[in-house]
Write a structure and sequence with these properties.
The complex is a heterodimer of chains A (212) and B (192).
Chain A lengths: L4 E3 L4 E3 L3 E5 L3 E5 L4 E7 L2 E8 L2 E11 L2 E10 L4 E4 L3 H5 L1 E3 L2 H6 L5 H17 L11 E7 L5 E7 L2 E6 L2 E6 L12 E5 L2 E5 L3 E5 L8
Antiparallel strand pairs in A: 1-5, 2-5, 2-10, 3-4, 4-7, 5-6, 6-9, 7-8, 9-11, 11-12, 12-13, 13-14, 14-17, 15-16, 16-17
Chain B lengths: L1 H38 L5 H27 L28 H11 L2 H10 L6 H7 L5 H13 L3 E3 L6 E3 L1 H22 L1
Antiparallel strand pairs in B: 1-2
Helix pairs in contact in B: 1-2
The chains are: A mainly beta (212), B mainly alpha (192).
């Protein structure tokens, strides 16, 4: 079934700093004054496009019995990014944006904002993401990167998946009730590397290398 | 003919011995898993198992080599039997020689007693700085931070930005093991 997804035209601004996501691996924050436009699915708000100031902190580190691999990413969110999932917190903490609010975030006027937001939104939908995760308890973020690509982050319950360029990180948070045995498997062939560590997996589609 | 038969018998015996050891190990590891699941902790079975099996294979290979030497004439350029470990256990062989300056910087990070103690602590898993302080009371807080910075700079340790834990990296584990191996070999030489 094809869903009708489009961007709303009434911008709002955040009244205060908000933490959009926080868990053991990732924190996404946005600052007061950030502009938002609703993403409408069949007429209902199911997400937002946000543009302003914020930060993504992600520990893209895989723990294996042979040692840790990866790095921590800290990215300033100064480009429009998309968020699907829980929308109530944003809706409850915004007010209609004024021309001054748009100017503060570097937009000439409403039209300028809408053109740039729609451009980012259409880039996202064109790039095979026409069906973002809209399940219960699932949050999806899409960050437009300087090299015209999208980094996608999906969280559901205790799981987190992050894809960036040709790398896919899959994390599962250990809980008290979960007995996880440290296992590792490395497969490097045909230009792909897969590392399965403790509660997490790294798939590198662009590297045929061995780490251990 | 008699030599050949002896060799075959010996190989058969060794194979049976290896099978027995493997079965025994399988039982042991299975038993360990069950026990630890019950207690709610885990151990690194994979690594110890593969290391142990590697040693067993090497000892079997040595046995076969010995028998061959006794039974069959092998000239100065004769074949040598090699038991290769699986791909996963292959030694990491660098394709190029390391830049001596970079290698020296890494070795310098490793060459400090307190930093080796920090690596030793991290070998058992990621730790917060407070845990390192508790476990290494002989290192002051400011010195501990400084050591961690040096280890991070050398790529031997990495810090999570969200939780703040310190983790030992793959090169870090290799470096720590290398330091231990060299020290162990040196100690053995002194004993001899």
């Amino acid at each position: 079934m094809t869903r009708h997804i489009k961007l709303g035209k009434q911008p709002h601004k955040l009244n205060k700093d908000l933490t959009l996501l926080e868990n053991e691996k990732c924190v996404i924050t946005t600052q007061e004054g950030t502009l938002t436009l609703p993403i409408l699915v069949e007429g209902n708000t199911r997400g937002h496009i946000l543009t302003g100031k914020g930060q993504l902190t992600l520990d893209a580190i895989i723990e294996t019995p042979k040692g840790a691999i990866g790095k921590s990413l800290i990215t300033d969110l100064d480009q429009p990014f998309l968020m699907f999932g829980t929308v109530s917190e944003i809706s409850e903490n915004t007010a209609p944006a004024t021309a001054q609010d748009m100017s503060n975030m570097g937009y000439e006027n409403l039209e300028d904002l809408l053109v740039k937001a729609n451009d980012a939104f259409s880039q996202f939908t064109i790039n095979s993401h026409k069906h973002p995760k809209l399940e219960e308890n699932t949050q999806t973020f899409a960050f437009f990167t300087p090299d015209k690509a999208w980094d996608i982050l999906v969280t559901k319950e205790d799981k987190l998946i992050f894809t960036s360029k040709n790398k896919v990180y899959i994390f599962k948070h250990p809980t008290e009730n979960t007995q996880l045995h440290p296992q590792h498997l490395q497969f490097a062939e045909n230009g792909k590397t897969i590392i399965i560590g403790k509660n997490n997996i790294l798939i590198d589609l662009d590297a045929n290398h061995r780490f251990f | 003919m008699s030599d050949e038969k002896d060799l075959k018998d010996e190989m058969k015996k060794l194979k049976e011995e290896l099978k027995g050891l493997k079965d025994q190990l399988r039982e042991m590891s299975h038993g360990d898993n069950q026990e630890h699941e019950h207690r709610g902790i885990h151990i690194d079975v994979n690594e110890s198992l593969s290391d142990y099996l590697g040693d067993v294979m090497e000892s079997v290979a040595e046995g076969i080599r010995g028998e061959l030497r006794r039974s069959i004439f092998i000239g100065p350029h004769g074949s040598e039997i090699k038991i290769c470990k699986g791909k996963e256990e292959e030694e990491h062989e660098p394709k190029t020689k390391a830049d001596p300056a970079k290698a020296a910087a890494i070795m310098s990070a490793l060459g400090q007693e307190h930093r080796l103690k920090i690596l030793s602590e991290l070998m058992s898993g990621g730790k917060y700085i407070s845990e390192l302080q508790t476990n290494l009371p002989e290192i002051t807080t400011s010195t501990l931070s400084s050591h961690l910075d040096i280890l991070q700079e050398a790529g031997l340790v990495i810090q999570e930005r969200v939780r703040g834990r310190y983790l030992i990296t793959i090169p870090g584990r290799m470096a720590y093991k290398m330091a231990n191996t060299i020290t162990d070999l040196r100690n053995r030489n002194f004993e001899i």
